Amino acid sequence: MAYGIKNISPLDLKKSVSIGVKLPFSADNVFTRVYTSKEQLKYNLINFLLTDRRERVFVPNFGAGLRKKVFEQITQDTAEELQASLVTQIENYFPNVRVEELLVEGKPSENAIRIRFSYSILNTNDEDFIILDVQM
């Protein structure tokens, strides 16, 4: 009989040790702790999507640069270009993430972009999703 063995990150073995912080920061505690690598990876991806290029010191290409796209007219072609760019960047900076689906939707009346992003973690085969509205 075959068993489905699931890989567990060594960081997840100590349940009482936090490995990161949640986004967005809250006013009460400011930093809310994260205790699993799956949850921390989700917040790392959100941080990547909300970061502009040249914003992070010593890693000038890190970040999706979405705020710049908010003021551009989002057509089907520009949405497809942005999707392809995001998939490439995520593959470069997060090699343990497989993009399952990524949709970019423009909301011109609100000066916003909505990103729907589902992914799986290669080591553990866990799946998760992010829905992110970027607006100015």
Structure description:
With 136 residues, the protein is an alpha+beta fold. It has a single domain, classed as Nuclear Transport Factor 2, Chain: A (Roll). Helices cover 26% and strands 25% of the residues. The strands form two sheets. A three-stranded antiparallel sheet has the order 3-4-5. A two-stranded antiparallel sheet has the order 1-2. Strand 3 and strand 4 form a beta hairpin. The longest helix has 18 residues. The chain is globular and about 45 Å long. The N and C termini lie far apart (55 Å). The mean pLDDT is 84.
List keywords for this structure.
single chain, 136 residues, alpha+beta, Nuclear Transport Factor 2, Chain: A, three-stranded antiparallel sheet, 3 helices, 25% strand
Tertiary shape: globular
Annotated CATH architecture: Roll
What number is the mean pLDDT? 84
> Helical content, roughly?
25-40%
What is the CATH topology? Nuclear Transport Factor 2, Chain: A
**Count of individual beta strands:** 5
The largest sheet is: 3 strands, antiparallel
**Alpha-carbon distance between the termini?**
55 Å
Describe the structure in brief.
The chain is of the alpha+beta class and 136 residues long. Helices cover 26% and strands 25% of the residues.
SSE topology sketch:
Layout: E1 20-21, E2 33-34, H1 37-50, H2 66-69, H3 76-93, E3 97-107, E4 112-121, E5 127-135
Antiparallel strand pairs: 1-2, 3-4, 4-5
